[in-house]
Amino acid sequence: MQNRITALFKIKYPIIQAGMVWASGWKLASAVSNAGGLGVIGAGSMYPEVLREHILKCQQATTKPFGVNVPMLYPELDKIMNVIVELGVKIVFTSAGNPKTWTTYLKEKGIIVVHVVSSVKFALKAQEAGVDAIVAEGFEAGGHNGRDETTTLVLIPAVKEKITIPMLAAGGIANGRSMLAAMVLGADGVQVGSRFVASNEASSHLLFKQAVVNAKEGDTQLTLKELAPVRLLKNKFYSDIQTAYTKCASTEELKELLGRARAKKGMFEGDLKEGELEIGQVSALLHDIKPAAQIVADFVHEFKVAKSKASTL
């Protein structure tokens, strides 16, 4: 299964685990990397010294490549980047910001840079900024998302038509069949989030993992576009947001409702009522919590079976 993505990252399979806040610590990242994919530590929920600890533990747990995801809407970016450079991390995924801000600096340090986008316009800007690859993330994805609501099915071929650098597809991908579909549409590999949330090694709370695998079709919704669009499981907090909208809440009122540490409360501490529960639409297709290595193996097996069946069409 060798292609431009496996060559770029020096991995066996073009399966990248998304760097999700409160889920993607060193245990998950190292497990995915050891299984032949690319594990990614999610720095969005980490202070610089916490990130340092996770990188060091990941380096002890695997000799394989792994990366760090850095959402650029979080504070202390200079300290985060210094830790990444100091500890010799070779791959960085940037998101939620301008790729020009850090790409040149990171590449000068010999780091592979990948940027997450949700539109053709931002894909072109990322390519112009000099990134080595992009993640094109469709509307189906969990967590922070694009405002245009372009689905993965539409986004991947649209971006492929305009760029020349390698592309990963994200959003709604939770098995080998959807991986094959994304690659037929033009992706060189896939970035997988929700499926890895429902893994033994994810650092998110067991109650949140169970809520994910219990989710049904229609149980998630994209909301809070006035702040930063985010796809959430519907719970009391989500209902409070909808009530605020019916009362024509201002942006400031929405910020006050969101407050601080809402995502930590839900995904890391397991408060399923008042917490922010970020997950993708594809949670409706997830029915169990299993080891990350098994998830990677299942992807590869399902991909091969689906590819064989497709050849008979």
Structural account:
The chain has 313 residues and is α/β, with parallel strands linked by helices. It folds into two domains: 4-203 and 283-310, Alpha-Beta Barrel (TIM Barrel), CATH 3.20.20; 214-282, no CATH class. It has 14 helices and eleven strands. It has helices at residues 4-9, 26-34, 48-61, 77-86, 103-108, 120-129, 152-160, 176-184, 194-197, 206-214, 236-246, 251-258, 262-268, 292-310; strands spanning 15-17, 39-42, 66-71, 91-95, 112-117, 133-137, 143-144, 167-170, 189-192, 220-223, 230-233. The strands form two sheets. It has an eight-stranded parallel β-sheet with strand order 1-9-8-6-5-4-3-2. Strand 4 (91-95), helix 5 (103-108) and strand 5 form a beta-alpha-beta unit. Helix 2 runs parallel beside helix 3 (48-61), helix 3 (48-61) runs parallel beside helix 4 and helix 8 packs across helix 14 (292-310). The mean pLDDT is 96.
Helical fraction equals 40-55%
Mean pLDDT, rounded to whole units? 96
Largest beta sheet: what is the strand line-up?
1-9-8-6-5-4-3-2
In quaternary terms, these chains amount to: single chain
How many strand units? 11
Q: For the report, how would you describe the main beta sheet? A: 8 strands, parallel
Q: Under the CATH scheme, which architecture of the largest domain would be assigned? A: Alpha-Beta Barrel
The arrangement of helices and strands along the chain is HEHEHEHEHEHEEHEHEHHEEHHHH
Report how far apart the termini are: 21 Å
Instruction: Give me the secondary-structure category.
Output: alpha/beta
CATH topology of the largest domain: TIM Barrel
Stretches with pLDDT under 50, minimum 5 residues? none
Count of the separate structural domains: 2
- Described by the principal axes of the CA atoms, the overall outline is globular
